[in-house]
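Q: What does the assembled structure look like for these inputs?
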Amino acid sequence: MYNAKYIMPGLVIFLGLITFPLWFNVLSCTRYEAPQLALPEDQQECIIDAKVMRAEHMTLLNDWRDKYVRDGEITFTAANGKIYDMSLMNTCMSCHTNKEQFCDSCHTKNSVYPYCWECHIAPRGNQ
Amino acid sequence: MSKTRRDFLKLAGACACTVAASQLVGANAHAASAGHGPAVPQPGNQHEHALHGTHWGMVIDTKRFTDPLLVQKCVDACHLTHNVPKIDGPQELKWIWPANYLETFTEHNHYLPDSVEQRSFLLLCNHCENPPCVRVCPTKATFKRGWDGIVQMDMHRCIGCRFCMAACPYGARSFNFHNPRPYIDEAKMNPAYPTRMRGVVEKCTFCVERLAQGLMPACVEASDGAILFGDLDDPASTVRKALASKFTVRRKVSLGTEPSVYYII
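A:
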């Protein structure tokens, strides 16, 4: 190869730099730790299984928003037949009264900054 | 296998006939299922105690609003329920507000009795049957609910272009020039209803969230019976009875917006 003695070390250095985040994380043994969430003490179950909620709550909230505002649909029937109002402030946050240790701890850790609370009022449980 | 031009044309003709026939059958089936005219949209799942109507309307008995305290009570009831910020001057936000006769009606007669000219008229969104704000909204953030005639705002969609404010002949819409939070009394904030953010337009919603819970609008509840609310399509409703027994006017009818708010003079 033409000029291999310059190109090969250059390639190695380049690959090393570009994969820096991967091997740095492996070598420094920093593991992602799921934040500890403040769960409601007086409630045993969420409207949907917690696992599904963790992955899909943003879709659910978006669906609720469309249904409530645009289709005039007010109630949500859970799998166990329980009926809830489709409301972030009045349903979700009435159990999850601690926004900082519930919403924010995960969102901040994952660099997600939803703008819910510019309009919606965080529960007083925060103060 | 060889195809002559004649064979090809025959096949093409047969295909065209089949497609045309299927389109015709499909169109007929669609027309049969839709019946006459477009289908009326229906709301989704509701509570059993929710109030139902097909055309919500309001009748305001202006003779009863001689007491400025009652006027203020209605305005406060609305603004506190919906966390409307208190800002003075040209950037104020209002869902319902008092005005005098000249500000309310465009048809002005001379020599009106003082009692009428000095009276307070409560103004709010007229929830028009033919709302110009809905026509101009580029994002469909404001829309008319097909099942009960309420002109509703979708705050998540509003981009703050203010076309609706220019279109509304009643001045019923207000723009959030600032973040409204600092202008809302923290102690009196209603934790069950959101505020708005900077850069969106807001207006009266005929208390859709209260109707869904089986409650009358906040101003109606605070008015001690001076404001009536009900279904204009139902001849037995309180509003229809009031309209049938008293002379009422609406604002700027000549514009063709067909307001749903009536004033007893």
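Chain B has a mean pLDDT of 93.
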